[in-house]
Task: inverse folding
């Protein structure tokens, strides 16, 4: 008789194992795959797939430790997801997440181009439920001057930047509003038949609901494929024609300290293959050389 797990194993769920040892996993989640079971997705998520391989160890961690799952990606976002296999690893990595020691880089293709080639979007985010769905709402900025991080600063040196004024922010105040900071850098921009688009690298210094999606929309450069924040634009409909329920947003690099042996581990997941077709349509260079030439981590992390 097969073991009874709290999460039903599903060996048909597709994912790539980027790192594995006795204490933890890093999996590459494809776009369109939900991270963990929930409404309408009880048996077809990344965690269901993980249970089909590491079910006993994940079950032993229990609901208190979220069956090993340390963070989540939106359904339409692809990229690296960390899962613990031991209580010691879960507790150690959870602590690193809470102290913002884990560094994460995302790549995204956006409509238009940010006003500055590199900078920081420092706009608080509040969660609101709209039409039954959680949404990230930007609070009015206070226009405090800040410094760009060592990682994302331009080749001409650090510079002060103002908090970006959001065209879509709502007047949300109170305890629901949380600090949200995204450093960004434009890797490539090109104007084609479908208008101006850009390949942008983002580093999260906080982890809020839909943070990159909301910040990019607040800068008037929405993530392609994001109907929730970008609406039914021609570019979003173009992405939908290529890949339904996919966002042009990829969690491509991860750097952390191994919680048991203290090794520094850096992992990279190449951008999704469907981006190549999208880049050709947009006349935008989307290849490994562009990313490898421009990507790397800061020597420091954390908030100023």
Result:
């Amino acid at each position: 008789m097969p073991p009874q797990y709290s999460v039903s194993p599903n060996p048909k769920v597709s994912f790539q194992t980027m790192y594995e040892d006795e204490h933890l996993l890093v999996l590459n989640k494809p776009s369109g795959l939900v991270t963990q079971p929930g409404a309408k997705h009880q048996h077809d998520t990344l965690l269901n797939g993980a249970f089909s391989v590491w079910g006993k160890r994940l079950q032993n961690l229990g609901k208190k430790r979220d069956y090993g799952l340390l963070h989540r990606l939106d359904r339409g976002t692809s990229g690296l997801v960390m899962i613990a296999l031991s209580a010691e690893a879960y507790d150690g990595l959870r602590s690193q997440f809470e102290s913002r020691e884990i560094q994460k880089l995302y790549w995204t293709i956006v409509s238009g181009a940010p006003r500055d080639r590199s900078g920081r979007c420092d706009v608080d985010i509040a969660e609101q439920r709209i039409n039954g769905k959680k949404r990230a709402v930007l609070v009015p900025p206070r226009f405090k001057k800040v410094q760009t991080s060592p990682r994302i600063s331009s080749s001409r040196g650090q510079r002060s930047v103002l908090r970006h004024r959001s065209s879509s922010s709502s007047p949300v105040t109170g305890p629901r509003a949380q600090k949200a900071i995204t450093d960004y850098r434009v890797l490539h921009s090109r104007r084609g038949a479908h208008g101006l688009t850009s390949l942008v690298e983002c580093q999260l210094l906080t982890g809020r609901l839909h943070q990159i999606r909301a910040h990019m929309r607040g800068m008037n450069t929405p993530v392609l494929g994001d109907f929730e924040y970008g609406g039914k634009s021609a570019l979003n409909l173009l992405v939908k024609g290529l890949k339904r329920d996919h966002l042009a947003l990829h969690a491509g690099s991860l750097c952390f300290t191994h919680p048991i042996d203290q090794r520094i581990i850096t992992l990279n997941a190449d951008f999704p293959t469907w981006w190549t077709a999208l880049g050709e349509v947009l006349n935008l260079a989307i290849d490994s050389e562009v990313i490898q030439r421009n990507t790397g981590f800061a020597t420091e992390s954390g908030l100023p």
In short: The chain is about 20% helix and 30% strand. The radius of gyration is 19 Å. The first helix runs from residue 46 to 61.
